């Protein structure tokens, strides 16, 4: 797969922004992006506005113009779903079934201590479900309090509109055998769902933590994602996977379920992998580059394609800065912080 350079993207970006909201109102359209036009399964070398549809049938190409403002379009069938995991409460609480870490690090499973009422189409049958996602990395608040937070996504940290600050979180998640009380490691401190961000910050308790990601190592800082660069993520479900940043211009419509509904996230990082990049339970994992800098927060995907929030807006909206191993012990909060 070839990747468009920034000059080509800069020329197309204003046209894409002009039409994307109108395209997203059309039946079956779930995303708008910038990429290379493919015809007959072969790349053409031409930059295009890529329109994602949930099922590519004979009507979908016809509802999108062949070109807009001199820029060609390309209609691509894609399935983009939030990658939190859900199981019914009855089957999800089997102690010892999940990965346990005495020291908290990025890339491990986490989930709310409470269960949620969930119904179709997000799950096959309505009922009480428990949730699992990934604890991505650690950050410290900028308000002077120096609270240490674990980063995950809004749809793992809040789930629906019934959330409140102080909600408890367990590691391992209840999906993976964690139990309320003994396995509580954090509480919900803040969250954001707007613009390009689906994120939550979980205030850590007295469990020790380390500013690194399992199978990746110490986090060295934050950086913008660069098209064509290799990234890694360590998620609760798929473990360590690799991909290449294919775009930083993806706009996607995601269904957050009852109470929240469909929301549009803009300027998402699109990652392409030769294999399976992410799956249910990986939401909240961080994307890191070759220098172990965090570039994104993984939210959704489908098979070999993944989508992530750019890390810059995540940190700004949560009003935190990323933690690295150089942060002194004095900035670690006690149990009552």
Automatic annotation (TrEMBL):
Keyword flag RNA-binding: no
Family matches, as InterPro entries: Pept_S1A_streptogrisin, Peptidase_S1_PA, Peptidase_S1_PA_chymotrypsin
GO biological process: proteolysis
Keywords noted in UniProt: Disulfide bond, Hydrolase, Protease, Serine protease
Coiled-coil intervals: none
Disulfide bond listed as a keyword: yes
A molecular function (GO) term: serine-type endopeptidase activity
Family: Belongs to the peptidase S1 family.
Protein name: Trypsin-like peptidase domain-containing protein
């Amino acid at each position: 797969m070839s990747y468009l350079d920034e000059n080509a993207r800069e020329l197309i970006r204003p046209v894409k922004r002009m039409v994307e909201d109108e395209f997203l109102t059309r039946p079956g359209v779930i995303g708008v992006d910038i990429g290379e036009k493919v015809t007959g399964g072969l790349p053409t070398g031409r930059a295009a506005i890529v329109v994602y549809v949930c099922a590519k049938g004979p009507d979908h190409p016809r509802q999108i113009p062949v070109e807009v403002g001199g820029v060609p379009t390309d209609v691509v069938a894609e399935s983009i779903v939030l990658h939190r995991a859900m199981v019914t409460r009855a089957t999800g609480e089997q102690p010892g079934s999940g990965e346990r870490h005495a020291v908290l690090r990025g890339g491990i499973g986490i989930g709310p201590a409470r269960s949620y009422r969930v119904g179709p189409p997000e799950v096959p049958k309505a009922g009480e479900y428990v949730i699992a996602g990934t604890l991505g990395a650690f950050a410290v608040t900028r308000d002077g309090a120096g609270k240490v937070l674990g980063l995950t996504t809004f749809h793992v940290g809040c789930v629906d509109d019934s959330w409140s600050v102080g909600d408890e979180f367990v590691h391992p998640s209840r999906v993976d055998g964690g139990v309320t009380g003994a396995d509580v490691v954090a509480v919900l401190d803040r969250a954001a769902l707007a613009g390009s961000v689906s994120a939550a910050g979980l205030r850590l308790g007295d469990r020790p933590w380390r500013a690194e990601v399992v199978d990746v190592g110490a986090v060295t800082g934050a950086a913008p994602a660069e098209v064509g660069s290799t990234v890694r993520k360590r998620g609760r479900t798929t473990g360590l996977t690799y991909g290449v940043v294919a775009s930083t211009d993806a706009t996607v419509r995601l269904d957050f379920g009852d109470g929240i509904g469909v929301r549009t996230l803009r300027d998402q990082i699109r990652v392409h992998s030769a294999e399976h990049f992410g799956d249910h339970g990986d939401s909240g994992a961080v994307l890191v580059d070759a220098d172990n800098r965090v570039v994104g927060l993984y939210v959704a995907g489908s098979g070999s394609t993944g989508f992530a929030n750019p890390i810059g807006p995540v940190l700004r909206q949560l009003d935190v800065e990323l933690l690295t191993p150089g942060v002194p012990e004095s900035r670690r909060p006690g149990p009552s912080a």
